[in-house]
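2024-03-11 09:14:02 DEBUG pipeline.ingest accepted 1 chain
2024-03-11 09:14:02 DEBUG pipeline.ingest length=137
2024-03-11 09:14:03 DEBUG pipeline.predict start
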Amino acid sequence: MEAQIDTSRLPILVTVLPPVFTVEAIDEFGRQLNLIFEAHGACYAITDATRLAKSTATERIHVSAGMDDRAARGAILSEGIIVSSPIVRGVITAYAWLRKKTNHPFRCVGTMEEAMAFTLVIRKANEAGAAPPAGAP
């Protein structure tokens, strides 16, 4: 299965991950993201991972490497990930602290509303030429 990518709100890019996200599907997802970034510039990424059933370490590393590469190239202005499990959110947040190339605001949340609120605060701050407020939603 492939990820669903919604470009209707660019520069906010919303992706819904499928229940099973294979390395091949991740590669195709990466190609699509690269085309979007090349055509439209940097985006505020929101990823809905609530349907993702489980993933292997190989798949997680593959996704992370691709996102780190895009982040290093300045293609990601912020990253919000939606995960329904509070335990998994904690693990993802801890992992994000360890990422080497995350040079953008990152938040792991439980709902689309929270992810959109976070993204809009970051976007507003960027458009005003200001740093995001401390503790932004």
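2024-03-11 09:14:41 DEBUG pipeline.report The mean pLDDT is 88.
2024-03-11 09:14:41 DEBUG pipeline.predict end
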